[in-house]
Model the fold of this input.
Amino acid sequence: MFTGIIEGVGEVRSVERRSDHAIVEIKCDFDLETTNVGESIAVNGCCLTVTSRLGKCFWADISLETFDRTTLKNCKQGTPVNLERALKVGGRLGGHMVQGHVDCVGNVIDIIGKTGPREFTVRIPHNLSRYIVEKGSVSIDGVSLTVNRCTEDHFTVMVIPHTQLKSTFQSMKVGDEVNLEVDIIGKYVEKLRFLDSEEYSKESRVTEEFLRKHGF
Done:
């Protein structure tokens, strides 16, 4: 679990692609001395497991599923990435609950402002727009942000200078792809409502005949 409060911007040192996965090496701009092998680090909002580390560098495996669903497939040597280590129990939850499980890739379609706070507009697939609500939370490349406005296919966020300086937003431009994770609470509420609905009852395969067949 993460909070979307970025700890630093790292740099991809290498990407070794194999037939069924890839191995990425990332150099951090913070100390990894207390980070153990097996722990999680969010890389541009993607939860990866540290497989080894040396100094300020760590290595992680990337599955084909992660490549297909995120912008990590575009990473190459020199690519800057947002980094956040997992939340410690008892720590401050400065952003919102972020799993590091990317829902989709969005596109930056507009940026307003050159100095000070800048407004970013991001296009999102229609099937996920219902989870984006005004003044709700969303994770963009692992950064927890508040939604200013939203429509059926895009939403806007305001990014303050501090966040720009401490993340990859400082170099983001129109046309860039970004990893998006919507607020998980909305997804669970929707699922629970569906389980109680008549539609779910009709779709359920657990029938009286099924139960008798299996000894109930």
The radius of gyration is 20 Å.
